[in-house]
Design a protein that fits this description.
By secondary structure, this protein is α+β, with helices and mostly antiparallel strands. Helices cover 32% and strands 23% of the residues. The chain has a single domain, classed as Glutaredoxin (3-Layer(aba) Sandwich).
Length: 102
């Protein structure tokens, strides 16, 4: 999403990453890999549990989740992968934003 950040911003979208880790680990990771969007830490996995994004041994760790939430707080698009590398393409996410949130 980083490489298409301007396209997301043009649509009025805000990208928020929720990291399932400690503040210290997230701070270190993102200091080495800066991103232009907001990163929040969910060290007790409360947000992950609310959105049913779970860690599974079959996916070698945390499954990826991607959600488009409109300005009213309604989830307009939800995707939960079964493997870490499964995530919709930026093109697909941008199309979903254009379809549901413009």
């Amino acid at each position: 999403m980083q490489q298409d950040y301007e396209k997301f911003a043009t649509l009025g979208a805000e990208i928020v990453v929720i990291a399932p880790d400690t503040m210290e680990n997230a701070r270190q990771f993102f200091s080495e890999r800066p991103v232009p969007f907001i990163v929040l830490v969910d060290d007790n996995l409360k947000v992950y549990q609310q959105f049913d994004v779970q860690s599974k041994w079959t996916s070698l760790g945390q499954r990826p989740g991607l959600f488009i939430i409109d300005k009213a707080g309604i989830v307009q698009f939800a995707y939960i992968g079964s493997q870490q590398w499964q995530i919709p393409s930026n093109t697909e996410v941008l199309a979903q934003i254009e379809q549901c949130c413009r």
